[in-house]
Design a protein that fits this description.
By secondary structure, the protein is of the alpha/beta class. Helices cover 50% and strands 13% of the residues. It is built from 28 helices and 18 strands. Strands 3-4-2-5-10-1-11 form a 7-stranded parallel beta sheet, sandwiched between helices. It has a 7-stranded parallel beta sheet with strand order 14-15-13-16-17-12-18. Strand 8 and strand 9 form a beta hairpin. Helix 3 (27-42) packs parallel to helix 4 (56-66), helix 13 packs antiparallel against helix 17 and helix 16 packs antiparallel against helix 17 (335-356). The longest helix has 22 residues, at 307-328. The chain is globular, with a radius of gyration of 26 Å.
Length: 648
């Protein structure tokens, strides 16, 4: 067949406009598609920022589908992954009229595992009646589903404990030894991906495979001509997660649960096994209790001298080694018990490695939750490691997002991933920010780290909320600030006689809260990190976004602290090179919640005096969309009232 040109595709009367009623040609979109087509042709590395409304998804799908090679598209979230595969990809493929085969591939924990489901239905002690009900629903789903993808079973919540009993992990998957190997949903999804020309994955899956050679990508990459990362701003954090190593008490609890199930199933005569499981579970609890802190991150050097922690860690390793030895003696009884032996030995080995890691290469730190703990070893830099992933067979690598550049420069992003020789390009949003949006910077606010700041943010927001009639996001950089603001807002709204529904992050899933927000039409949603990105509310339901302060990464984060210290030792300016670009990119994400469509109008209020009082504030402001700026409350109120008047 004759491959259409980009001009034939993107023209006002071209293939897209004829097939997609809502399509409108945007110069930025056409230019971006041309650059991506060139990168694919030349096997180049391209880093491309495209502002909200550019239509970057179509910009990369068109050249990808026309390239004739195998393409892997990786997204930042499973939500975007599903949207891309079920909506955007079919629409563009149909418009182009190209017979391209496609496949969706997720991590194994997204697919029902026949073996673990059957085993746990028989032997497991589930925590609640709801979990039992959910597991029965999953059992029926497994018999009728073609894909086994848990996203297709809406009746069971994504966070239901039952899924832990119905899916496998890298650790407990039996692989080719599994008696259900032939009917495995994971393997079926991989087989489809191997023969498809376009495969849609997500960043976690991509890196889980690149690092662990586990999820099927090891077979996909060698035949791949192009890799496209959408929501590429998330890559440094995701890559850091996977290029390091983590052992958690949750993994130990899962191992103990699975070992007990296997012992009851095939080794009831080995009376010592349940006792060894209980000893290992207790060692995990004791390790957690060795640190009195909760919901915090601690560098290893701050706890290295605590005798209680070191003793508990040694006891944990010893318990795992003892249980592994006992399981090894029973491994011939079945694949499941052999798997538990291997997992126990591996966890013991990883904890031992954690004790011995070189601090010059890896940052050792501990994450303590209320009931659990994770021990991390994180690379000080991922640039060299990631650069190594790009070597090998020549192929195109495309990195795109609405937030990659700081002041139009990509230095920070490229340095993080070792992409110093990459081509870069930046396209602004086609939306009319100058007329449709106002950036309001309130006067007289206290310093952002003062006790009075959150209350001052709420006070500054009240006139705006009255003018906008709700319809607002209040975004905070910390959970503590979010909760305090919610309490203050609740009383302030009552005092002011304003009957706006008040929603709080955590009162339901993000999807549920957004659905309520859209449906209510005059709600105020108070959120933190979950609502800073990946949230799309178009139209009159959202006219105001209030951000409490610049989202600098917390200075007590162990990995950040180690990286800043390393930069300082090299004689570099750690704040300007690392902390400032990080905050600017994160702020762009939060600010991007306001204008999501051509007809959207609204006010963005940023309540941090450093934007105007510090020299670096200019760099951050230059990274935001070109909104009209004001320090006048009256002007912001008038702008919001004009929006409401038009809506009425």
């Amino acid at each position: 067949m004759t491959v259409p040109t980009l001009e034939q595709v993107f023209a006002p009367d071209g293939l897209l406009s004829r097939s997609i009623p809502s399509y409108r040609q945007r110069p930025q979109q056409v230019e971006m598609a041309g650059c991506i087509a060139d990168a694919i042709r030349d096997n180049a590395v391209l880093v491309a920022e495209a502002g909200t409304g550019t239509g970057k998804t179509v910009s990369y799908l068109v050249p990808a589908l026309l390239s004739g090679g195998k393409v892997i598209i990786s997204t930042g979230t499973k939500t975007l992954q599903d949207q891309l595969f079920t909506r955007d990809l079919p629409a563009v493929r149909d418009a182009l009229g190209v017979p391209v085969t496609t496949a969706l591939l997720k991590g194994r924990s997204n697919y029902v595992c026949h073996y673990h489901l059957a085993h746990n239905l028989k032997e497991a002690r589930l925590p609640t009646r709801e979990s039992v009900r959910d597991l029965r629903l999953i059992e029926h789903f497994a018999r009728t589903s073609q894909s086994g993808d848990k996203g297709e079973l809406a009746e069971v919540a994504e966070d239901s404990p039952a899924w832990g009993y119905a899916t496998s992990t890298r650790e407990n998957c039996l692989g080719q030894s599994c008696p259900n190997h032939k009917e495995c949903f994971v393997l079926a999804a991989r087989r489809e991906a191997l023969v498809a020309e376009v495969v849609v994955v997500n960043h976690h899956l991509f890196f889980a495979d690149v690092v662990l050679r586990d999820e099927g990508m090891a077979e996909l990459l060698p035949a791949c001509n192009t890799v496209i990362f959408d929501e590429a701003h998330q890559l440094p954090d995701t890559a850091t997660l996977f290029f390091g190593e983590t052992v958690s008490t949750g993994q130990i609890q899962d191992l103990c649960r699975d070992t007990l199930v296997e012992a009851l199933s095939v080794a009831r005569d080995v009376a010592a096994l349940p006792d060894l499981v209980r000893r290992t579970e207790k060692a995990g609890r004791d390790l957690r209790l060795a640190l009195p802190e909760s919901n915090t991150r601690l560098p290893y050097k701050s706890i290295a001298d605590r005798a209680g922690f070191e003793a508990a860690l040694k006891a944990m390793i010893s318990a795992l080694q003892t249980m592994a030895a006992a399981l090894e003696s029973q491994a011939e009884r079945g694949e499941g018990i052999e798997n538990c032996w291997q997992r126990a030995a591996e966890l013991a080995a990883r904890l031992t490695r954690w004790q011995r890691h070189d601090e010059a290469e890896m940052v050792r730190w501990v994450e303590a939750y209320s009931q659990a703990m994770a021990l991390h070893a994180t690379p000080l830099s991922i640039a060299e490691i990631f650069r190594g992933q790009l070597s090998g067979r020549p192929r195109a690598w495309v990195f795109t997002s609405a937030t990659l550049a700081v002041g139009g420069k990509f230095d920070h992003y490229c340095a993080q991933l070792g992409l110093e020789s990459a081509q870069t390009a930046c396209w602004g949003s086609p939306f009319d920010y100058a007329n449709n949006a106002l950036l309001y910077l309130p006067c007289g606010l206290p310093e952002p780290n003062s006790r009075e700041h959150t209350e001052a943010v709420v006070n500054a927001a009240m006139p705006l909320l009255r003018a906008s009639r709700g319809r607002a996001f209040m975004l905070f950089t910390t959970l503590r600030g979010m909760r305090l603001a919610h309490e203050l807002l609740r009383s302030r709204l009552v005092e002011a006689g304003l009957d706006f529904p008040l929603l709080l992050q955590g009162e339901g899933s993000r999807t549920e809260l957004l659905a309520r927000f859209r449906r209510l039409g005059n709600a105020v949603l108070v959120g933190s990190a979950s609502f800073w990105e990946g949230v799309d509310v178009r139209g009159e339901a959202l006219s105001l976004v209030v951000i409490d302060k610049l989202p600098f990464a917390p200075p007590d984060d162990p990995v950040l602290a180690a990286r800043l210290e390393a930069l300082t030792k090299q004689g570099r300016n750690a704040f300007m090179e690392y902390q400032l670009p990080y905050a600017a990119i994160a702020l762009k994400q939060g600010a991007g919640r306001l204008i999501r469509d051509e007809s959207d109008r609204g006010v963005l209020a940023i309540c941090d005096p450093r934007l105007t009082g510090k020299a670096y504030g200019r760099t951050i402001l230059a990274s935001l969309p070109p909104m009209r700026r004001s320090r006048s409350e009256a002007e912001a109120v008038d702008f919001l009232e004009s929006i409401v008047a038009c809506a009425d």
